[in-house]
Amino acid sequence: MATLTGEGASAAPVLTLRGISKHFGAVSALTDVDLQVFPGEVVALVGDNGAGKSTLVKILAGVHPHDSGTMIFDSQEVIVRSPTESIDLGIATVFQDLALCDNLDVVGNLFLGQELRPIRLDEVAMEVKAWELLRQLSAKIPSVRTLVASLSGGQRQTVAIARSLLGSPKLILLDEPTAALGVAQTAEVLNLIERLRENGLAVILITHNMDDVLAVADRVAVLRLGKNNGVFNVADASKESIIAAITGATDNVVSQREATRPIKVETRSK
Ligand SMILES: Nc1ncnc2c1ncn2[C@@H]1O[C@H](COP(=O)(O)OP(=O)(O)O)[C@@H](O)[C@H]1O
Ligand SMILES: [Mg+2]
Fold first, then answer.
1. How many Cα neighbours within 13 Å face the side chain of 213?
2. 21, 31, 55, 96: which to mutate for ligand 1, most atoms within 8 A of CB?
3. Contact criterion met (CB below 8 Å) for 92 and 41
4. Residue 152, helix vs strand vs coil
5. What is the pTM (predicted TM-score) of this model?
6. Fewer CB within 10 Å: N-end or C-end of the chain?
C-alpha cells in the first residue's frame, strides 16, 4: 500500500498505526489499517457507514482493544487498555454525543470528572482556567457561568473540545463534530479546529461532510470496508477522487494496478 506519511513533515509523527486489525465475532471491522498523524496537522478520516471509523476511534480512545497491529504514540509503542490510559498518554476524544451536563454551567462541565486529579482547583482558579482555555480557542461563549443547556450546538461542541484539552493532549479525535450543526455553527467549529492545529495539536477529524474536509483538513485518509483505501493531500486532490475512494468507484482500477505495481496515492505538497 502507499506511504501514509504527511508531506514535508520534519517533526516525528504523534501517532503511527501499522496493520491494525479488529473483529467483532465474524465481522472484520478493521483489516491491516495504517495511519500516521503529525503535530499541527488535521487528518480527516472518512468512509461510508460501516467503514470502521468509529471502531478506529474507539481503539485509540481505549474503549476496545485491537486484535493485532502496532500503535506508536509519541515515538513509543503503546497498548491502550482503557479510556484512562488513552487520556494519560495524551489522546483526547470528543465523542459524538459530547456527554455534557445541561444543568451545569460551562465551568462545571469543563471540570466535571477532574475531581480525582491530584491537583484540585478552587472555583476562582477553575473560572480563570476556563476563560484561558476559551480564549485560546477564540471561542464565542458569553460567560463561563452560562448554563450549558442554553448554549448553541456549536458552543456545546466548543465546551466539549475545551474540556478535552484540560489534560494537555497531543492528539485530539473529533467524531462528527459538525454533524448536527447549521452553517454558522459549523464555521465556528471549523475555526476552532484551525486553532487546535495552530496550537500544534494533531487532529483526527471524522466527518461525513466533504465541505468540512476541504475547508479544514490537510490530509484525508479513506477507509472502505475496514481497509485503507487511499490518502490524499487535500490541497491538490479533487473532491471527485476522494468520493470515488469512499464509494469504491475506483476499486477495480486500483486492484488491476495493484497486480503490477504499488498503488500511487496523490501526495503532492500543498
Ligand atoms: N460493538 C460492535 N459489535 C459488533 N460489530 C460491530 C461493533 N462495532 C462496530 N461493529 C461493526 O464493525 C463495522 C465497522 O463499524 P464502525 O466502526 O461503526 O463504522 P463507521 O463508524 O465507519 O460507520 C460494521 O460492520 C459494524 O457493524
Ligand atoms: Mg461511526
1. 25
2. 55
3. no
4. coil
5. 0.85
6. C
Give 77-134 pLDDT, tens digit per residue: 999 999 999 999 999 999 877 778 888 889 888 888 775 555 666 888 888 888 888 8
Is residue 177 within 6 Å of ligand 1 at its C-beta?
no
CA of 35 to the centre of ligand 1 (A): 18
- As a whole-number percent, the residues of the chain with pLDDT over 70 amount to 86
**Under 8 Å CB-to-CB from 153, ≥6 apart: which residues?**
180, 181, 182, 185
Rounded CA-CA distance 155/146 in Å is: 11
Instruction: Report yes or no: 204 and 237 within 8 Å, Cβ to Cβ.
Output: no
Domains of the chain, CATH where assigned: 15-101+169-260 (3.40.50.300)
Task: Match 482558579 to its residue by C-alpha cell.
Answer: 125
